[in-house]
Amino acid sequence: SKGAGSLPVPSVLRHSLTRAKDELQKAGFTVGNVRSRSDEDHEDGLILEQTPAPNQPAPKGSAVDLIVNRT
What we know:
about 70 residues, mainly beta, 1 helix, about 15% helix
């Protein structure tokens, strides 16, 4: 079972990196590795992927890795 310290990770997909960091910190998480990938189908600078995925339980204060679009 999940410990009492677990929280659902908010979705920051399609957010700017600045906004994603803000949202994650407000929700009690930190930002982990930030990598970039080029995806022409999406706007430059927006979050394409996050790990853990949205709504997954994760320990409060744990890091969320992000992949940001750099077209």
